[in-house]
Amino acid sequence: EAFYSAQGSLQLHLQVTGELGRKLKHQKKMTAIMRLLAHGSLSDDSYAEFMTLNAGPGSSSGMGIAASGAPDAIAMEEGEDAMSFYDRTGVAVREIQLSDIVDNDVLEKAEFTEADGVTQEGEGAPKGEDPPATGLRHPLEQAVVLAHCLDVQNSNPRDGLTNSQMEPYLEAVIERPLNWMVHSTALLERSWVECESIKRRERGLFQIQALVDQHTTRLTLTQSSAQAIEEADPVERRLRFVHSVTFPPRWELKRDLAQRYASFGAFAGAADIYEELGLWDEVVDCYKVLQRYARAEKLLRRQLEECGGVENATPKMLVSLGDVTQDPSFYERAWEVSHGRYARAKVQLGIARLDAGKLEDARDAFTAALRVKPLLPEIWFKLGAVAMRLREWDTALNAFSQAVMQVPDAAEAWGNVGAIHMRRDNWEAAYPALQEGLKHMRRNWRMWENQFITTVALGKYAESIYICNQLLDLRDARSAERHQQQGTRSNVLQNEEEKKGAARQPEFNMRYLGMLLKRIVLENDSGRALRHDHLLDRLGELLQRAANTLQTDPALFDMLSIYHASRGDGQQVIQNRQRQCRAARAVVRWERTQDATHAVLSSVARYAQAVLEHGSEKQLYDCKMYLVSTMRQADEAVAARGAVEEVCKLQADLEAKMPAAGATSTLSNETEL
Question: How far apart are the C-alpha atoms of 427 and 57, rounded to whole Å?
Answer without folding.
Answer: 85
